[in-house]
Amino acid sequence: MTLTNAVTTGLEDRWQDAARPQTSAGWLARAQEVADILAADAVERDRANATPHAEVRQLKESGLVTLLGPRIHGGAGESWDTAYKVIRTVARGDGSIGQLLGYHYLWAWAARLVATDDQIASVEELYTTNDFLFGGAVNPRDSDLVIREDGDDLIFSGRKSFSTGGQVSDLTVLEGILEGTDTHVFAIVPTAQEGIVFADDWDNLGQRLTESGSVEIRDVRVPWASAAGFVDKEFQPLTYNTLNVPAIQLVFANFYLGIAQGALETASAYTRTTTRPWPYGGDDKHHATDEWYLLEGYGELASKLWADEALLDAVGAEISGVLHAPREDLTARRRGEIAVRIAAGKLRIVDDGLEVATKVYELTGARASANTVGLDIFWRNLRTHSLHDPIAYKKREVGTFVLKNEVPEPTWYT
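Structure tokens predicted for Alkylation response protein AidB-like acyl-CoA dehydrogenase (414 residues):
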């Protein structure tokens, strides 16, 4: 069996004659099917570090790519509340693919966040009817993507050191700075064009199948009319525009939780079938599942993840309500309160998730450190992406809110 056969086999006509789910519960069940297929050879695919074409095809065939798409165009018309749980579920099977899906949802929603009504309608019809996957060349710490005007067009040129989705995306969100100004412009363009050149240089410790390497943008031409949220070359600001950061930070937290849950599920299955009880403790057990320190250890880790899940579900419902409400209704204060709660959820799952991904080795035993077991994938994935932005600043945001009743000002990371 080749490294991608498990995923490819899982795709064979699996959903061809199956009706699309009609409820949130049905979509979560569909996501679990996808996760189960991905989990079967996640370690082998991670080791191979190949471009995840088959995995993305699975996301499309299952219908998950158009979960947030309008029903009028064949999408599920589901809420962000459901989308966050779907991201988490897929990440249990493969953290990389959970990230790809989560980023896709955010960039598919980017038009609603910043674009005009006509632009929103056009983008949503385009991606939903075609089952397109979004990627994003949007790394705010890189300021070397410059936009120059050429009549009624904008020309994007430069480089981004990260572009999640890369070669498996159908559409790419570009972000750059208009030459001679401090104005940021977002635009959605087809990925398959000569002016977008991926370096294929993503070779990090974890999240290896996210296609997150660098990209060179070579004179990509975009009509001014496609600059998201601009009318007559002037941006039309709303507080709602700034929800992109809290929304994607909660995407992060949910696939972190999924990775941690996957670690605990994988470890507990190993303990039930393979871990041996310790015979030198004076209170010898016949089965590892009766070992007191294993019962205590799994109980402690599970309790932490259940608490994290409850917090992320609560704040997921909060931001979902705001994301689906009229854009003009959102106030800066409400936006800030939600951002603080998301920061709290993220910092908790990073700490707890890394503890889970490390401590499972103590609960499975020395033999579980074998590469064939593959427990390392969970720690590597979580450790890699949780470095996206410093957790210390999330703690400061929460502390400032608690002590001073101040909400964070919108930035590229808050």
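The chain has a mean pLDDT of 94.
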